[in-house]
Amino acid sequence: MKPAASISLDLDNLWAYMRAHGLPGWRDFPTYLPEVVPKIIESVRALDLQLTVFVVGQDAEIEENEESIRGLVQAGHGIGNHSFLHEPWMHRYSETEIALEIDKAHRSIEKASGVQPSGFRGPGFSVSNELLDELCRRGYRYDASILPTFIGPLARAAYFRSSDLTAAERDERKKQFGHFSDGFKSITPFLWKSGSGVLLEIPVTTIPVLRLPMHLTYVHFLAQFSSLIARTYFRFALRMCRLFRVSPSLLLHPLDFLAADELPELECFPGLGGNSDEKRRLTHWCLEQFTKTFDVRSLDDFALDLLQSGNGSLDRLKSIDIS
Q: To bridge 9 with a disulfide, which of 40, 141, 252, 312 should be the other Cys (CB 3.0-4.6 Å)?
């Protein structure tokens, strides 16, 4: 039998990318969900994959996006909470701000999708003890906000070079993408424990030992230099996961299905060069390799299987006290 793995997608919208790079017009919340969601659904349906899609609450409140979000549910995909305003500095929020942000997003997503989220991923992999404690208090099953890689500071430096941000905006984002020390965090699931309860953590998988990213946005970035390098890199990442018995949690984004020919507003964004058809072919190839190597299920289903496991798997997980 193939070992288990999971897959999810952060449904970051056009306005979120525009905001991240300091582009004007983002406050109008422009959307590409009606265009990209059918492409996502069609692509994963061809491989019989079910995703957990982390939705931003602000998008769930816009009527134009509701059909797309409902379409994901109707296609059998799970829905998670990706915050309300998608601010990657959410780890700097106060306890009150965190509670309001999660609650507002939860209610908006439930209203738009008809589904109560049970999983959370922080925007920009932002996480804090206060956020985790609030998720425990609300009864969420799992968090998926950790990216255990050493290259966070390098990613942040590259991001600042390619963005037109004010000094105040740079200050807000000064800890975005984490620290070098994040590379020492676990790449396998573990438990957070607080006075409010227990929360399963499922990190976004990075390559064992090397701790380099393997999510598809990074693969597409490599493909700008060489498709062969990108494909070889992804094959190597999957082999390393098998070798070290890691059940990978693979992350997708809408920009894994779109390129600058369809999104000229974001042509300066790393990894967005090239042709959309070529990009979707590479995404399909990666997902095909993933399903050949692992028994892939949605992140929701993977978390539920682990939490309900009757063979003592949960008892063997490392736990971290956040009280």
A: 252
Please state the domain count of the chain.
1
- Residue 320: helix, strand or coil by DSSP? strand
Instruction: Please write the tens of the pLDDT for every residue from 171-184.
Output: 666 566 677 788 89
> Which residues are registered as beta bridge partners of 54?
10, 80
Give me the CATH number covering residue 214.
Answer: 3.20.20.370
Q: Averaged over 219-233, what is the pLDDT?
A: 95
Q: DSSP characters for 120-176?
A: E--GGG---HHHHHHHHHHT-SEE------S-HHHHHHHHHHH----HHHHHHTTTT
Closest C-alpha among 114, 116, 83, 111 to residue 98: 83
pLDDT digits over 11-29, tens only? Answer: 999 999 999 888 899 999 9
Side-chain-facing half-sphere of 8: CA atoms under 13 Å: 29
For the chain, the maximum distance between any two Cα atoms, rounded to a whole number of angstroms, is: 53
Domain of 215 in residue numbering reads as: 4-321
Q: Write out pLDDT tens, residues 249-275.
A: 999 999 999 999 999 988 877 778 779
SS3 call for 186: coil
